[in-house]
Design brief:
276 residues, Rossmann fold, seven-stranded parallel β-sheet, 8 helices, globular, binds NADP nicotinamide-adenine-dinucleotide phosphate, sepiapterin reductase (NADP+) activity, oxidoreductase
Length: 276
């Protein structure tokens, strides 16, 4: 059966978000993919879209899509406008194809917070700013995506359409480590929200997944090694980096896309790259 996926990815211009988009083309098994690539850097998103189109022609996957730049998910004053732009783009793509079989939201964008600080040094002001980006905008993205998707594909009229929400999570969502207070708080909150949505929308063919990609060999990990205040953990990350043990982004993003393709994961659960 022909399959056409609508895939929204935040922070798709670089890092893991871009890697997930590439793996989606290579491994999802979809015949056609309509991407909504979201982020701050318009040009970076457009470059990724061009790469995806090229990859699609090599893999026999029809790639459609749009780059929604100038979206600062940390800016609460422009969030409503940003969400509207993302919703409009998704709607446009749905209208263009009229054949969407699966709608996927991949909440990838995220930030570390100041890892030099312990919790007692963190101010409420920086906490508020951190949570605006990593939790408040996440909630807005999830709820608007669900509203539109369920309105567009009511189960009684589209029994085969599937909806999936993914949180790019972290080990820190389920394990406490020194100096990660904001990051761990944000990831735990995101995990729990998707747990709730899994229950609320089960009857609507909606599944959710919290995926921890492992310590990736990328810019964010370099920032961790540069800023982390806890010496013990720093040694572990330095050692992994020196020994080439950090996870290749492509390996982790492929694992995520294959999980989504197999569709055997427990909805609302937390899956780590290292899980069997
Ligand atoms: N790297 C790791 O080892 C690791 C491990 C576990 C989990 N993760 C999670 O994986 C996800 C992706 O991280 P990454 O490793 O790819 O990090 P990254 O290299 O720092 O990329 C972060 C992405 O988020 C975007 N972003 C940052 N601030 C934004 C804002 N205010 N509004 C909109 N977009 C914004 C960035 O766009 P700009 O180019 O505009 O900055 C970029 O696309 C994150 O949720 C992270 O917590 C990463």
């Amino acid at each position: 059966m022909s399959s056409h996926h609508l895939v929204i990815i935040t922070g798709a211009n670089r890092g893991f978000g871009s890697s997930v988009a590439h793996s989606y083309v290579a491994h999802s098994g979809a015949n056609a993919i309509s991407f909504v690539l979201v982020g701050r850097a318009q040009q970076g998103l457009e470059d990724v879209l061009t790469e995806l189109r090229n990859a699609g022609s090599g893999n026999n996957v029809a790639i459609h899509g749009v780059a929604i730049g100038d979206v600062d998910l940390a800016d609460i004053d422009t969030l409503e406008n940003s969400l509207t732009r993302i919703r409009d783009a998704a709607k446009q793509l749905r209208l263009q194809s009229n054949t969407i079989t699966k709608s996927v939201l991949i909440n990838n964008a995220g930030s570390l917070g100041d890892l030099s600080k312990t919790a007692k040094e963190v101010t409420w002001q920086e906490t508020r700013k951190y949570l605006d980006f990593n939790v408040v905008s996440f909630v807005g993205l999830c709820s608007s995506f669900l509203q539109d998707t369920l309105a567009e594909f009511p189960k009684d009229q589209h029994p085969d359409h599937r909806t999936v929400l993914v949180n790019i999570s972290s080990l820190l969502a389920v394990q406490a480590c020194s100096n990660w207070s904001l990051y761990a708080t944000g990831k735990a909150a995101r995990d729990r929200l998707l747990g709730v949505i899994a229950l609320e929308e089960k009857r609507n063919n909606v599944k959710t997944l919290n995926y921890a990609p492992g310590p990736l060999n990328n810019d964010m990990q370099a920032d961790v090694r540069r800023t982390l205040g806890d010496k013990e953990q720093l040694e572990i990350y330095d050692d992994m980096h020196k020994k080439g043990l950090l996870v290749k982004m492509e390996d982790s993003s492929s694992k995520l896309v294959l999980l989504l393709k197999k569709d055997e994961f427990e909805s609302g659960g937390h899956v780590d790259y290292y899980d069997k």
